[in-house]
Amino acid sequence: MELDFSLIHKYQFDHKYIVLDVDSGLVHDVSPEFYHYLDALEQSAGRLDQAKSRMLADWPDTLPGEPDGLAELVEEMRAQGTLFSDNKGLLDYQPPRDRVVKALCLHAAHDCNLRCRYCFAGTGAFGGHRALMSVETGKAALDFLFGASQKRVHIEVDYFGGEPLMNFDAVRQWILYAREEGAARGKLVKQTLTTNGLLLTDEILSFLNQHDVALVLSLDGRKNVHDHMRPFPSGKGSYDAVLPRLKAAAASRNYGNYYLRGTFTRYNLDFCRDAAHLLEEGFDIISIEPVVTGGGAPYALKIEDIPAIREEYEKLTRFWLEKYNAGEGFNFFHFNVDLNQGPCLPKRLSGCGAGREYMAVAPDGVLYPCHQFVGAEEFQIGNVFQGIQREDIGETFQKNHVLNKPACRGCWARFYCGGGCHANAWHQNGALSQPYEIGCLLERKRLECALFLQVMLYENKSENESDEYFL
């Protein structure tokens, strides 16, 4: 029996034995016997007689005929395309030639009222001078999006910084313009604002709520963790000033239409405690991201930290399940996996769409592939006034999909991560085609945790239950 074991991924999480069929995306919750028979097959290079001998030797309680029955089951599943499926048609994938821009990140402010130590934007200035985007430039950016999105109805805008609320008078006008002009052009514009929360007054919050603007709120977790990495320019921690504003924001929208985003560094590898703290403070839509920075920074994650981080993700997984079973479930971004109606194949292959479907706009109107490339002259695609001037940049990003990245082609997680973050690959390795290693290792671990949770939810599901935390 010739079997390519790169077509499946199997692992054990607590009492569960899980097998993922990579190409089909099917997840199998299997018996220990079946799992270890796959082990025996892999160790025997698919030779049935040797696999049977290994199985009987390693599992003394195995019935003599059981390996034969397991062999028949493997063959049956392979014939049905549910195990060891091999979609060779994927190799013929060609990215769409027509450019349709779906989302823009408007850098409302290249300035910030905090001085976060890990800020990839150089505390808001993005390696240049501090500046605010003009109202005219922002409207031109929206006009560019309306046109570049072609016939697409649903489009997205994120008001970003630095701290975008430092330019709220302009942001207010763009929000209204996006709604009114977008409706006139037959567009439904989803608008999001990313903020540290310091300037979220009742008046501003009321306006954002009235116009259905989603919020991404920044809080790293426990007070000592947050204060150490997110201080004011004076060096004083910002936790006490930020927390009440963020709690008011979440409460004002009935704890929906927001994400609370934190960052963990080498200083808080016990980030499960930060997730628990955020939950205790009333936030139940949480994302805690690993910091990405140069290896020389004292807070940077290192390869030797991976075992501890993996263990912490497992701890967080068990914590999530405990809370869910107690009726206190919460949404943790990296555990959101939809096994029934996930992204389409082109999206799985192309990932975020940076440089083609998604772009960022600097305060001067210059277009970049994404917010993490802003300020890098070699990645200037064009500007919102004259449009795209460097089609080759977008094409380069588009060509760097998972099937064209050597490190991705044989990775079992390739259809979930889309090849990883282009910016992380470039900033860490100087090449779009070479994924950021630590990011890959953590992504695979998070996916194992997420798939385990899906198995547990499916097992415990009844007709009266719903997977409300997997949206």
Number of helices: 16
Strand elements, count: 16
Indicate the mean pLDDT: 90
Q: How far do the termini sit from each other?
A: 40 Å
Strand order of the largest sheet: 12-11-10-9-8-7-4-13-14-15-16
Strand content: 15-25%
Biggest sheet record: 11 strands, mixed
Low-pLDDT stretches: 466-471
Helix content: 25-40%
Q: Explain this structure to me?
A:
- The two termini are 40 Å apart.
- With 471 residues, this protein is of the alpha/beta class.
- It is globular, with a radius of gyration of 24 Å.
- The strands form three sheets. An eleven-stranded mixed beta sheet has the order 12-11-10-9-8-7-4-13-14-15-16, covered by helices on one side.
- Residues 466-471 have low confidence and may be disordered.
- Helix content is 39%, strand content 15%.
- It has helices at 32-43, 48-58, 66-80, 135-148, 168-184, 202-210, 223-229, 239-252, 272-280, 306-325, 345-350, 391-399, 406-409, 414-417, 422-429, 437-460, and strands at residues 8-13, 16-21, 27-30, 103-107, 109-110, 131-132, 154-160, 188-195, 214-218, 258-264, 285-290, 331-332, 358-361, 366-368, 382-383, 387-388.
Detail the topology: elements first, then pairings.
Blueprint: E1 8-13, E2 16-21, E3 27-30, H1 32-43, H2 48-58, H3 66-80, E4 103-107, E5 109-110, E6 131-132, H4 135-148, E7 154-160, H5 168-184, E8 188-195, H6 202-210, E9 214-218, H7 223-229, H8 239-252, E10 258-264, H9 272-280, E11 285-290, H10 306-325, E12 331-332, H11 345-350, E13 358-361, E14 366-368, E15 382-383, E16 387-388, H12 391-399, H13 406-409, H14 414-417, H15 422-429, H16 437-460
Parallel strand pairs: 4-7, 4-13, 7-8, 8-9, 9-10, 10-11, 11-12
Antiparallel strand pairs: 1-2, 2-3, 5-6, 13-14, 14-15, 15-16
Helix pairs in contact: 1-2, 4-5, 9-10, 10-16
